[in-house]
Amino acid sequence: QTGHVTLDPGYVNTGACTSAITYIDGDAGILRYRGYPIAELAEKSNFLEVSYLLIYGELPTQAQYDEFAEKIRRHTLLDEDLKRFFDGFPRDAHPMPVLSSAVSALSTFYQDNLDPADAESVEISTVRLLAKLPTIAAYAYKKTVGQPFLYPDNSLGYIENFLRMTFGLPAEPYEVDPAVAEALDLLFILHADHEQNCSTSTVRLVGSSQANLFASISSGIHALSGPRHGGANSAVLSMLEQIVAEGGDVANFVERVKSREKGVRLMGFGHRVYKNYDPRAAIVKKTADDVLDRLGKSDQLLDIAKQLEEVALNDDYFVQRKLYPNVDFYTGLIYRAMGFPTQMFTVLFALGRLPGWIAQWREMIVDPANKIGRPRQVYTGERERSFVGMEQR
Ligand code: SDX
What we know:
transferase; Citrate synthase; citrate synthase activity
């Protein structure tokens, strides 16, 4: 008996894990973090508060929130030697392997606080990662544009600090656009956790060997980078740009998807769990309209995306396969309107997913039932056979 469910002991052999962090009902389109519906958190909370909720299990009091935010502010700087890592990457390096490399390298700078069994080390690693990932992400972007890195400005909020490090220049003051900060905070909330998805399962599997938090999160970043997973938000933009480049014929593109033309998929559609609709997608779609209005930007690609959604939602091929827009379908359009290049979209997904990865890793390492991950297989190879010498082959 754990909480409100009774577990069949056999569950352990299914490779399933227990978790009290996020609940998804794929048929009903339900997503809750620690019991709170995603729509309520999106409307009433902010990303740091949701991060606290995911990691510690309860919404913080004002004093707990202030202490959490202050601890994070105190750790936003990178070690100057880690900053020099970025000099070694090629200018055109994709920011995701840069992000994963820098996170992995954090474990070489904090060797005294890596033990997953030491509560203090887990706490300081949690704060360091939440504080430093935005700085690392901003520097990964600055590297691609050859601009100087800005040190964090701790008088700014969490999101605002990241935006200034990303888009600010030492040559002139940078004013954060509140509309951008507010929209990015909301998108980070929507991405903050999602049960046992590919990258979170990777974080838990790597962590189950008692690898440290930085190593586990670095692995999760790599898993997220794949186009079937977090890489999809960038792939949606490439798909929309391809449709426009080929004349904007949405119906023709949908027919090519249905004919299963090689490499032609409706990116941003479909989900392993949501077989009705992804509750996050509805919120993101509304945000896209709001953000583009507030930024005074229209985007032909948003119009194409809406046409694509309209056609697909009324086409049996997609309806029969229960393919609906997922969280990635509209997010890239918002990130583009904010000024981020396509390559940074999955980095933004990682920034949002970080508290969920940390919460899931922490939950796993303190679980007394937790064993090293060891997925089983069904062997389909040769039966036993004897060795044949080279001359007989
Ligand atoms: C995320 O797990 C999570 O929670 C992930 C995530 C999170 O928050 O962590 O929600 C984030 O990763 C969202 C998903 C982003 N990925 C994409 O948008 C990429 C495009 N989507 C697909 O590649 C696919 O839908 C997956 C990978 C998302 C889900 O794959 P499934 O559930 O394994 O589905 P499937 O590959 O078994 O497909 C079922 C059928 C197949 O047709 P048939 O062979 O049965 O005829 O649907 C078809 C597929 O060909 N299909 C698609 C399609 N997705 C599935 N056909 C066209 N376009 C698509 N996008």
